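Re: the 113-residue chain
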Amino acid sequence: MGQTQATIFLHCIAKQHNGYWSARCLDFTLYAVGNSFEEAKEKLDAQIIEYLYDATEGEDRAFAPQLLMRRAPWRDWLEYYAIATVLRFTWLKRVTWATLIDLALPPPPYRHA
C-alpha cells in the first residue's frame, strides 16, 4: 500500500498598513513585507521554503529541532485567532485590513533557491 502524505497548514497573517502589506508565519516566526498582498505572500512563501531547507538540509541542520519548533509570542497567536473569529462572521467577510493566509507546508526534500 502506498503512503499518503498529510498536508500541514501553517498559521500566517497578512495585514495592510499605510502603503504596504506585512505577512507573518507564526509557526516559524518569519516576517515579509510587500507593496501588495500578493507580493508579501510570495515573499513569505519563499522565505519559508528557504528556512526549511536551511533547517533540514542546509547549513543550519544541526539546529533543526530548535528552528522547527520556533513559535511566535502568544500575543501574535491571540491576534491570529481574533482575526480568524472575525472572518467567520459572514457580515464581516469584507474585512480589508487583515486576512489569514493559507500556506501549505511544502513536502520534503526542500530545494535551495
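The first strand starts at residue 9 and ends at 16.
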